[in-house]
Fold these 2 entries.
Entry 1:
Amino acid sequence: MTATSNRSWKIAPSILSADFARLGEEVRACEAAGADWVHVDVMDGSFVPNITIGPLVLEAARRSTSLPMDVHLMIVEPERHLRAFAEAGASVITVHAEACPHLHNTVRMLKHDEPYRSLGIRAGVALNPHTPISALDYVLPDLDLVVVMTVNPGWGAQPYIPRTLRKLEELRERFARLGLTDPPLLEVDGGVKVSNAHEFALADVLVCGSGLFHYPDGTYADAVSGLRRQLATTLT
Ligand code: DX5
Ligand code: ZN
């Protein structure tokens, strides 16, 4: 897979794999390592089996960095919690298409209602591995971010599912066909490592949890530069 030479990528460490006893320090270390966003995985024990982070922890992490907080809501009825996460410091809020029967309305809220509008919240939608990109057809022009789940959400450190990568090509084609002048960013989430980052080069944002926090060959900065180096090998 080849990308054009003016490409750049954002690296978003998922704090799910961080040491929560030292969360502030870990978030600061990500910023010092050259990360672009901080990815915050919110799980409710219902949409996914695991339970993780709430607005209180987001607010604490937020105080340790000036990087944008990329909040991934793996929760049912996300509409009920958008305000809490927005006010706790989210920059991007992503909901799951599968968790939103009224997805158009949820995205509309994030883009146009208060307090989201004044806070400048960006709106994202995530697709589970089985969900086709057509689920986004009628909301695509309103989105700032599309998250292609490359694992089934619920845990960190899973191997990515190769066939999900086809969605990146499909989405790029769909953006072109719709003639979107300012298309949403494409994010991949799950199983990204320094060793395989080149396979995700069609994305704009790469979430990396265990691949960064448990990088066996060096520091977080080594992991971030390793990811960028792998991605750069795809440039023509
Ligand atoms: C999966 C989460 C991911 C995950 C990524 O449910 O949404 O963000 O933590 O972790 P790694 O990079 O370890 O697969
Ligand atoms: Zn995530």
Entry 2:
Amino acid sequence: MQTMDPWWKSAVVYQIYPRSFADADGDGVGDLRGIIAHLDHLAGLGVDVIWLSPIYPSPQDDNGYDISDYQDIDPLFGDLDVFDELLAGVHARGMKLVMDLVVNHSSDEHPWFLESRSDKASPKRDWYWWRPAREGMEPGTPGAEPTNWTAAFGGSAWEFDDKTGEYYLHLFSRKQPDLNWENEEVRQAVHTMMRWWLDRGVDGFRMDVINLISKDTALPDGPVAGTAVFPESAAGYVNGPRVHEFLHEMHEEVFAGRDAVLTVGEMPGVTIEEAVRFTDPRRRELDMVFQFDHVWADRGDDPWQLVPLKLTRLKAILGRWQAGLAEHGWNSLYWNNHDQPRAVSRYGDDSPAHRVASAKMLGTVLHMHRGTPYVYQGEELGMTNYPFETIADFRDIESLGQYAEAVERDGRSPEEVLTVLRARGRDNARTPMQWDASPHAGFTTGRPWLAVNPNHTRINAAAQRDDPDSTYHYYRRLIALRHTEPAVVDGDFTMLLPHDERLYAFTRRLGATELLVIGNFTGRRVRAEIEDAAAWSSAELLLTNEAAPSADLTLAPWQAVVYRRTVEA
Ligand code: GLC
């Protein structure tokens, strides 16, 4: 890690959500053998790294983001032998494997927590955040919680435990108690576990909500226990006082001497200034972070109101991140993951007329930024959101928790809440991977744990592999461009047309090579009014999803173009 020219700068990462990828044993849940069976799909796409969402033993309260044993595989997915087979299969194809590291919290069924909960005098008591009721309040009564912090999945972040008469902290579900990183033994246990996986051959970690691990030990109340999940002002735990120290220590304890490792920290509420500190190689913390500004750009003050996304806002946000990390640090680039709705339904147009073009356009714009792009399973097929009808169609703990709170507690109308969950709910990303047109999309021979999108008869991998014009083959060419064109990796980034609500345009410049990237975010023809349009239109067209534009650079609906020219150095 962090040599002069780290390999991950020219890499593309593919995220697998194992429960929804491919089911080999017919129980309706994806598994490791299913992944092994489809490794050639990924090698064919040309990705360099696979990131696996959690596969460790877990009660599956949050689909594996609640871990009860960090050094094993959940029988739902396989066992350590199958894991080794998968790892060997990945390496044999020249790819790398990155694990999800979920250590802000464990499961409440982890032996550490069971021990911690058993007795105030337990040696593991201090491994979690136990606190008495607020001064003068009756323990377990409303308002007696130690702080006003709210949990991401609804309700208070504190759970009262009868056994010892104290509360424990959980920023997510009550089955995800937060680990106390102030305790040195906790940190050592995490480091030991991480080294164990690296020694086994894994190539790095995606670190779940890692900017929440350091809490202000005074545990101050928040300004408002409002509805925004991680406001930048969130009291006491977003980018807490010791987070840089903890990550630097982890770097020294775990990654020192292991140059080929990739680390990416998921960081809701991280600012650009903080991200520079996290990813500046001289500080030896992380390689890159996932920021949330661009995926929160269509959130309003009222979470149950859909705010249409303004392209100028999206460009301003991503442009700021490009500029902010230009000198030191490195960006990660994503539209999708298992927590976000499908990009083509959110930023593009998933109607039959425009779905393919807009999916390709979105991929082009994202991948041509400076940073390491992440492709989420099914994105390479242009998979869409799911047509959810009622709340009973959802399985996601977040959607269910927020629905209960909004409808049952706050009296919102179910339809109002469902409208937002249909557009934004996490299960949109979690419907099974669409391998073919057969009844369960080739995902399982059993009953899928979450419904398959009915559009799998039209949108599936088998059909796209045979079609050179498919989204899959377009992504293949897009990914290859990063491997062959150094300006994509290292070129300077300059945003063009910042006030234009229709076009996303920028240049990349490395030495004498200049690239021009334009994406049309509308279903209409739009002329790109940029300097040098005529000269650019006769430059080399490296990639486009439509016919070459006319000399005045008029783009077709949802068209993307990447031009290359040589300029005076
Ligand atoms: C991260 C994960 C999300 C999970 C949460 C709690 O945001 O991506 O899926 O619910 O952390 O672990």
